[in-house]
From TrEMBL:
Annotated ranges, domain YbaK/aminoacyl-tRNA synthetase-associated: 5-83
Domain of life assignment: Bacteria
GO MF term set: aminoacyl-tRNA deacylase activity
Protein name per Swiss-Prot or TrEMBL: YbaK/aminoacyl-tRNA synthetase-associated domain-containing protein
Pfam families for the chain: tRNA_edit
Lineage of the species this protein comes from: Bacteria, Bacillati, Bacillota, Bacilli, Bacillales
Species: Paenibacillus pinisoli
Amino acid sequence: MIACGVNRINEKQINTHLNDNLGKADADFVRGHTGFVIGGVPPLGHVESIITLIDEDLLQFREIWAAAGHPRAVFQLIPEELVQMTKGRVICVK
């Protein structure tokens, strides 16, 4: 899930897109499925294929910033690049 920083994610809304119940992942789960630590998970380059849901509100910005593999590293891109590189599904998360 990649969301606009001001939005609160509506878990019920996300559950309908996933046909599953959203749960909170612990640090071991995140690292095991992505290869990265919480706080630094980038939108691509994961050790396993994951479903990427992208907040539609991100598309209003000219540029956005994403985690780059470490809690203190980010990179700049445009929303369309994010959608293309992750093959993400743009949805309403609110």
